[in-house]
Design brief:
CATH architecture of one domain: 2-Layer Sandwich
CATH class of one domain: Alpha Beta
Radius of gyration: 41 Å
Helix content: 40-55%
Number of strands: 11
Strand content: 15-25%
Number of helices: 10
Length: about 300
Amino acid sequence: MANKKKQEEVKQESAPQKQQEAASEKKTATKKKSEETKDEKTESQKSEAKKAEKPADKKEQQAEKTPREPQLVTVNGEKVTHAHAFQSNKDENTWYFTAKLDGKQLRPMKMHVDDVAAYQKKESSVEQLMKTYYPSKMEPKVSREQYQAENKLSDGRMIDKMNVYKEKDETKQDAGKYKLYAVVGDQKMSTTLSFKDLNSFFDRVTTPAQLVEKNFGEKLHLASAYEKYKMPEGVKPENIRIAKDKQTDKWTISADLGAKGKTEKKPLSYDDGYSFFTAKTATREQLAGKYLTNDIKSLMAPKQEKAVSMKV
């Protein structure tokens, strides 16, 4: 009897529990169904929004992909765009010029004060600014065949080897800089390249012969290397004296301008002395232009008379 009574009590207790569990499951199922319906609506709304935005997005993408009209086309057919000057955010007096060449950003170049003024007044053109700050980009490129063929110097000698390299020896002062190396006969030479020559090399607007003559012309005693030196006007060749200094036993150059005075004696380098005495590729006037120009101009400049005042 006791067992029967106990079983009835257990059954009575489990019945409400089952009802609660059933109600809970029904509630969970309803909630899940509601969430699924909500998700479906959200996805549907997103899809409709995408459809609505698609035409506008396509137009924007097409606008972005449409290439900008070039401001200038170089002699090599490269297109210049986005050419402009901008002010430094660190110094209001400093301006830079930059542009894109066939879509590639060029390194900004610091502008000269006069160019900034002309740019602000809209008196300078893109072509003028490109020629000033990116000259090698505006020059015609040398073909591969021409580059390989032009390895003969103006005096007929051949360039046996030439290359541009970056100095890796950290013990040297020019470590990390680009240098030009050349071999002509028994002469092996190297020097740091200027920014202009480096750009000319990488942009392929120069030849080995031009690079070697420009950078090693005096070492090679080439007449072309001394053509750039001009003696100041008003000075005669007989005013220029090249003689060996008795104290130092070195060849020197000086100018005697008579009543206007004499310049200091400047020692000639070995290469210049060889070019003058042996190779005969440098003239007296050219060497005077190289060594004495500033001194001669200083002597020939009109003297400012000091005002004499009398105390009363």
